[in-house]
């Protein structure tokens, strides 16, 4: 976040940006971003007002030469692996379940392709909005210096979002979607509301044009660009004031279709990197495999998050149906911060090792969250069988990680406990409450079992320490945990504190809508009613 002593503005340092990686020659795309008023190749200056830096409230940055963009990835980076290493017959593939292709060797029928406008509803943004006055350079700097650290428990230059930026900036489609997110977040950051400004809409529309062109069956797919674009589209739609179930369901299905069509799950789970059906034009590098695994993990996380609100979940459900592959993809994704410095621009292995156990617990909670989502929507027979297993897994996590839970919830602030630890513990207790309320039991009703009251108390305690330890405004699952606590607490003091720390526009709007519903109905609210209200609020508005 900006400090009072930060003296140099973005406009004062536009010529001092240098590449983040080892090369000293930025790409033409990056050079276009470094000059005010410039737009990306393929975008139009006619549908937007050139940015005026003097009129724009840009956060001051000290020593802006540090906030730099990466140079184009060298062709020599990574280790290409030829298709020739791929098993040559179906029998050989079947011997290793991780080597089956996207359609499980025709055992699964090909998914219906995305053709209609309804299927691609997420590719279109409508409505009119004001021009923010920001330019692309400001949006990129904001993305690096402000947004990346708010979306992570790491420093900005060591976060996955900076890694994604490094890989997106020389891929026009992904970069357009990244800039759509960045301009939108810039508007939210300065209190301009959650409606994306003209600058954001322009980039989203251009990215969508390239996205639709990429569906040409004769085009060679760029999977890194496509998967990053999917991720940025999730980030764009999840930050609207009203979650749009139709767009997020279509987006979830589009991700699933792309991953299964090209066998990216198999590719990222394999120890022997190869190309499935020529998916990557015959060559895939180890660094690309790791990056794709990281993006798939993020998409799984986002889709499961949206599924709670009845918006999507198809991709998350698919990932949960292949637990062995999912686990291997997760392990592969962890290697993103162990890649050579020349590939990622930094080395974060130390932090990754330090938080390794906590991060593994966090991912297990992401898996459990989606399984509870499924449990909440299952038939009575299926749900009856699922609940004991889910309870046992939560109990096992608590038993195995007793020290973590004790440190995060004890009544004196432990400076040795990391933000990642506090967030993980907060999510754990929120899941305990969610599992209890997931069927017909309404949030906020009393009496409740002693263990659920203890979970609520511990959730609030861990959340309080998390807010004192670091920035949590854009950590979606922490915000969701506050949402669960807000539905459950009854005393006004805690309700006010939770409301003041709930900063996500969609969650905040949904929470306010639900609280109004609870006041009218003089009772609690079920998960099923929450999902109905999210859908209904979109229609009413």
UniProtKB/TrEMBL annotation:
Region (Disordered): 1-52
Keywords: Nucleus
Domain of life of the source: Eukaryota
Cellular localization per UniProt: Nucleus
Cellular component, GO, one term: nucleus
Biased composition (Polar residues): 9-30
Protein name: Putative Zn(II)2Cys6 transcription factor
